[in-house]
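Batch job 17 of 40 flagged for manual review because the log was empty.
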Amino acid sequence: MRTVRRWESELDLPVHRRQHTRRGIVYAYESELDTWWKAGRKRPEKVNQTPAGGGRLLMLATSVAGVLLLAGGYFAWERFRGNTASPPFEIIRTTTLTGAGRSGKAAISPDGRYIAHSVVTSGQQSLWVRRADTLYDIELVPPGPVRYVGITFSPDSETLYYITGAPDGGRSILYRIPAMGGPTQKPQLAHNIFAE
């Protein structure tokens, strides 16, 4: 009915209503429509451009604008919120491992608490360990005429395993020592993995 009323008021369309029925009947005579058509049809000055489908378009445009506004607000909030927590590896602190000579082999414990490294001074090598949160080294093995072939930690980070060899490339030997110092031991192997 609204559409018919709009045609009637804005376009001056000759419309008739029969009100005696419950829903009402709308009709137009063919002769009146022909006359209206030939008269050039009344052009509305202001035609309502939001018919029933226009409301959906307005709602869609409003929804899109709202989503864009929310997205812009979120990105502005992320950028300017002043997050004090830094992402991993954003702030990196580097320190010199040793200043007493030259470092050879090095290893970091699985839990990240310890750093073990060999130090070469005057042709001899020694084994040192440092807690990662301090600047102080602990000498585990004093300098000697050996070369460290490999250094690694046990999975629980409590024991340090290292392999030494003669400087001339001779036989290599596996040792273990507690990560924070103690007696050096040769572990008992089920078979000699270094035998030729």
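Reviewer: the log was empty due to a logging misconfiguration, but the result itself is present. The chain has a mean pLDDT of 78. Unflagging and moving on to job 18.
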